[in-house]
Amino acid sequence: MDPLIVNALIILSIFGITLLIATYSTWAERKVAGYIQDRLGPNRAGWGGLMQPLADAGKMFFKEDFIPAHANKWLFIFGPSLAMLTACMASAVIPFGDSFIVGENIVLVQAIEVNIGILYVFGVVSLGVYGLMIGGWASNNKFSLLGAVRAASQNISYELAMGLSIIAIILMSGSLSLRTIVEGQHGGNWNILYQPLGFIIFLTCAFAECNRTPFDLPECETELIGGYHTEYSSMKLGFYLFAEYINMFASSAVTACLFFGGFNYPGMDAVQNQLISSLGEATGHNIATAIGIAVMFAKILFGIFFFMWVRWTLPRFRYDQLMNLGWKGLIPAAILNVILTGAGILLEMRWLSWVAVLIVIAIAVIQASASQKKELRAQRA
Amino acid sequence: MKLTNRAKQIDNSPMTVAERLYIPAIATGLGITIKHFFKKKATINYPEEQRPFSSIFRGLHVLKRDEQGRERCTACGLCAVACPAEAISMTAAERKPGEEKLYREEKYAAVYEINMLRCIFCGLCEEACPKAAIFLQPDKIAPAFVDREQVIFGKDRLVEKMDDRATTGIQKYTGVKS
Question: Where on this chain does [4Fe-4S] cluster 1 bind (chain B) (predicted)?
């Protein structure tokens, strides 16, 4: 088969899967929210509320599509489109699995294998700011503009720390290609074991980049009515909200690739050998790949669940706290992590990044045992 | 004043490093929320599952008949006097010969109306009634209405049907079963 057609098919199927998972994330979000709050969540539309996303989509399509009189009409439409577009683009370079052997050809389970994969992801993610910024600006509403400015400055601030935390990973794997990074973690050498600090920084930044709680300040309805999408209605609002779920999927996938070994799982070599010896070269390899894809999606789905879990646990940051954490907390920590990782590579001690964690834990324990909490006085009799 | 035992003392002393990292606190919080994820849900799926009424629930009014099917109400007006919302109004009439099967005493309510927009379901009518005629049923919710025409409930809707007698606690007052 023409490799172009094969590529197109893979791109289309990954695109479809992305949209499907994002659709059902909206259902899962409400279900998780319900379960965490001792409720049941949607359970009327379909089995366990499974038709709910379709009902929501239908509702959104039939709502009045309103464009404010003083809005810049074209940019107003362009904003959500751009948000959606950039969100969908990010998953193109993610390796969802190893490879399939089809006849003579080896087909990678990845839309595009480029040797700058992670750079591409960062480029696309930083484009996402434009969707928010244009949407907020074109609305011609000061609250929307404020929300957009907050979104933009938040994304830029956290992108720095995110990039720095990635540098440690790139140092360790020696490649920008996501596939090489994933394959480098083969055999249980998951990066999270070597980069605990980098992982925490990356995770925090991923939350901020996705505008998820506790970093969902751009759409803080108590201060900004609705933030950058105050003036949006109908499916344009739907696009903004949907883009958030696609972003969640993409960032869960990137996190899985960078820190949790992507499609690797413990004992995968034994499984593959077993399958190849019992089913033959091609079939065995293909089934082993399919298992790898399932593992990858399990990791991604857990990532999405974690996003939701955190949403119903933590309260929203105040804006100055957000900026403090980003600039004074995460960026210095990320730089320290890069230095430690570099030193670790130089000294051939891959675990060196743990030193920072151990130092912090030691300081915390010492200080906690040294500082006696003052005796509490009753505030009210 | 101490209302519950759940109040926590606020601690304003400077935070330690462990506290300023927030990670232990966040982990604790995540633990608490995930525990709730697996807890039994408080939800009752309303139309399929229904919560039993409280034992002191006061619902839709009923004007009782006695065991021979005669209306107990004698239009004395005590319920209207007792009603704090002035929802009850009635017109009395005298029983004609031959109507002994219909009305228990010589006087009866020719018109008996409760304005359901005014009624607060306090139950004072029930307490005021010397003839054990009016009750607030413990198992029936007053029906919803969408129109002011439907608000005033007359005798047609209040007096119980003999083939469908209300199972309310008349015996509490009279010792007679329903």
Answer: 73, 76, 79, 129
Q: Which residues of A touch B1 (CB under 8 A)?
A: 380
Contact between B36 and A374 using a beta-carbon 8 Å cutoff: no
pLDDT of residue B110: 92
Kindly tell me if the per-residue pLDDT of A235 is higher than 80: yes
Below-70 pLDDT ranges, chain B? 1, 168-178
Rounded CA separation B87/B15 (Å): 62
Q: With bands split at pLDDT 50, 70 and 90, how would you rate the model's confidence at A379?
A: low
Query: Measured between CB atoms, which of A36, A310, A380 is closest to B37?
Result: A36
- Tell me if chain A has a CB within 8 Å of the CB of B21: yes
Predicted-assembly ipTM surpassing the 0.90 threshold: no
Contacts of A218-225 spanning 24+ positions with Cβ under 8 A: A218/A132, A218/A147, A218/A148, A218/A150, A218/A151, A218/A154, A219/A147, A220/A147, A220/A316, A224/A143, A224/A144, A224/A146, A224/A147, A224/A150, A225/A143
* B4 interfacial to chain A (CB closer than 8 Å): no
Residue in A closest to B47 by C-alpha? A44
Residue A324's pLDDT is 87
